[in-house]
# Entry
Amino acid sequence: MKEKNVAKKQLEEYPDVFADIVNVFLFNGDLIVKPEELENIPIPSHLTRDNREHQVTQIWKKGHIQFSYLAFERPVNFSKYIPFRSMEYDGVIYGDALKKAEKPSDFYPVVNLVLYFGFEYRWKAPLSLQGCFKIPKQLTSYLSDYKTNLFEVAWLEEETISKFQSDFRFIVDYYTQARKNNYWEPIYGEADHINEVFELLADVTDDERFLIVLEEPRLGGNSTMPSIILDRIEHRGMMMGRDDGLITGREYGKEDLAKILLKNGKVSIQDIQEATGWNENAVKKLLLDDNVDPFAGMKKRVLK
# Structure
């Protein structure tokens, strides 16, 4: 896929998104960490291993805690030994603090937070340093352990999913639907960082088709996900893997997605008209056509 633009801001770097992630995964959804209390710290370039890997370091000033965040989809070479990766990442943070700190209060304890986006299989690799080795029981008390706090995004319970308030809910929704349904029907809601949502999906899935939405001028905030799909991605065909050509795919996709959204009452006939340029009769006809399965061809993984 395209090289990641390291200068571009990742979705998780936005304070509202990162606070949301921390609050849901570490504080059971309670609004403990506030966006204005966070400070982003640049990641050393030598720690970046893979385009699909997202890394963020944020200091929570009020709590005097530093969070190290790592996210990726499919297991990559180091995934069996994720405690090594977490320890390396956190060790660099402690090392930088050691160079800069002038007094004990300048040090922040580091809490690691690892998100796994894979949805085809549950995580099975060790999550602690000792779990990576076979060592005599007599030596376990002498080998320092290191725990990785890993969360499986696609396998979250509905109660947990409902607690997300930021744009990260679109990411969670995508992977939850991919695991359960093998297709994605975008939830309705406004997005503040819509460009970064699609960039994150492109990065962790390694699928450039998500970037089609970004080939147009960058989208503004406060856009609803279904309207973005209709107006700027313009075709369900992109997500269905159609090979009928871009123009034909867009038309197929408009029809498929319009039908889904109309039947679920998520948009009005006027909304569809405005987004597609169709006349009212053409839109109404979609509601009468019950012979076409809007999810035909999507009974497999949403995006390969």
Summary: Strands lie at 38-41, 54-60, 65-72, 110-116, 150-152, 190-191, 223-224. Residues 135 and 143 are 9 Å apart (CA to CA). Residues 230-250, 291-304 have pLDDT under 50 and may be disordered.
